[in-house]
Structure prediction request, 763 residues.
Amino acid sequence: MKCSFCGYLFKENEGAGGCESCPIIHGCPLISCPNCGFEFPKSLTENNVMPLTEMKSGEKGVIHSVCTKDQTILAKIVAMGMLPGIKVGIKQKIPSLRCRFGYTEYAIDDSIAKVILVEKE
Amino acid sequence: MIFDRLSKKHQTKSCCREEIIDVNNDTPKVILVGSPNVGKSVIFNSLTGSYATVSNYPGTTVTLSKANISLNGKQVEIIDSPGVYSLFTITEEEMVTRNLIFKANPRVLVHVIDAKNLERMLPLTLQLLETGFPMILVLNLIDEAEKLGLTVDIRKLTSIFGIPVITAVAVKNIGIKELSDNISSLIDNPKISKFKFDYGLALEKKISEKGIGIGRAKRLLELQSDSSETGQQPLIYQIAVIRQRWATETAQQVLSKNENGRKSFSHVLSGIFTSPITGFPILLLFLYFGLYKLIGQFVAGNVVNFIENNIFGTIINPFFRTIIPKIIPFPVFQDLFVGNYGILTTGVRYAIAIILPIVSSFFFLFAILEDSGYLPRMAMLIDKIFKRIGLSGRAVIPLILGLGCSSMATMVTRTLPTKRERVIATLMLALAIPCSAQLGVLMALLTGQSGAMLVWTITILIIFLTVGFLGAQILPGDKPLFYMEIPPLRIPSLGNIWHKTSSRVSWYFLEVFPLFIIASFFLWLGNITGVLNMLVNIMNVPVSMIGLPKETGVAYIFGFFRRDYGAAGLYDIYKSGLMNVNQLTIAVVTMTLFPACIAQALMMAKERGRLTGTAIFAVCISIAFIAGLLLKNIFNIFSITL
Prediction:
């Protein structure tokens, strides 16, 4: 497996090591590079779950889970109600991500979007 | 009826005064609560007949507004609160709401929600029910939901919660009567909902262990801020997920949708505003036509000239100059009214001929901008650039509002989530963002001088970006996160535009007018005692260092008190031919960078603390002086004549 950020090569079981302190260790579709700590999705073709950032403009889905250790980001996501079960639609990706949650549109940056995991329709 | 309305208007809050809510008085209190941008303030206005600012962007209300009304013969205090997504708060203005709910002991909580977003707003309904106060649920914007083909089963919703549920279209005054009737009967006959949500065995056990003698809502809040639990998902997330699952189920039970998904025109327009290819040109066109052509050239140029020359120059000033000597025999006191810095010939003229038309047109333009829903779109367009200077796209809103009135905008910086962003935005407002009166006068000065205009734009831009960039490096704190609700584009209502513009203009004018008169008085006093001359001589040191004529010293002295008075002073000096274009450019640049007026300085000290406020003030003066010095030397070295 190769880190898509720094290019470091590692085995999949090494990657989980970076997630020790994360409470959502099982079923988290992200893998963390043991070299630089960058988180990116494993291949998720079976269940179609991916971070919001990986979806393309015009695609739709339902929030599957929120996967982050960062309390600040988690608090924001919780406050805005971007929670499992809510329908999502990507409106635009450049210059900022704009998407629809339920019937409300939000602009959010990648650091928030990458921890929201969506089951693509 | 009209008198009624007028007398109520006097109770309305001005932009920057905070309403103090007396939590101990006996008047029954009704609090309007809900997510941002669902129309709480519109409902407040229709219920009370007063005016709280209404816009189409989340975070319009950052303070509390209150009004006493009489409902069926009872005195009731209605309180409008800043929007919250949840009782677990993030920003300062959300804290205001939460504290209010727990401290004011409200007789009725009115939860206002956007009907089409029932699913996402019900978790807050649940949290409010847990506070144990009598409640009413208002499904506002029901017309927008119907347009989407959504219908809500109100009966079912009422029976689930055991509280009154009302549908409303507040901007059209639909549902307001029903709401006030319900408030009235709940006050007479308080009924607390018996609805109790079950969080499941494990969580319920934890809830019951948290704190004795406090309500369920507070226990849940404490539980959510508890991060000691390890090996499991954080409690804040667990609780939120459970609530959301319930909300989704409930919404499915009461909502039905007939599929006729059509792409409305506003959706197409929304895409045009936010796509980078079309969005940036639209933004530039707006700045060029709105700010430069309309306000800079037309209002600050033609309109101001007309009022100055044709009304004050030929009618008002000559009239006072002949009449005053007839009433007051002493020349010294004649000067107080009609002299060089006379109250009538300078103070009143600055306020009415120069400042009033410019400020009104700015506020009018911004009212349209605020109500259309364009501001949040601008925010997302510019977020990536702002990240470089330590801000997020969110900061666009206070900064743009700062072009109207910087003190007002300094207060709006509350909506920024981190202290770091708030400090940088406050600094920018004091330094690089000129307020409307100042900008208008400055543009009028620069009109026709394309070279000077170019130098001014580039200098201010460079300073804005450099100071932001350095500020972002120096100030501690995390990188800002950007998240913002993008409300639907709406056609601004004329009534609201008029209301908002007129209330802001009258607030501004009432604030500025006495200050201008006081300023004229002190100039007169300084003039006859010789203090002014002394000050001008002192000011002459820095002023001549940046290559400006001695007379500009007066403008800077008063720039300390109000930037717009200073700018209007420069306008007079330039019109009398005392400066060449190079000097004008330097003067305009330094005056733009010059720190806030007194009102803004006070606001900075209040919002950011005295230390930070003073530091920002000092930084601004230094940068203004250094920039002037640099410009002068650059002009000299390269022998540039603009």
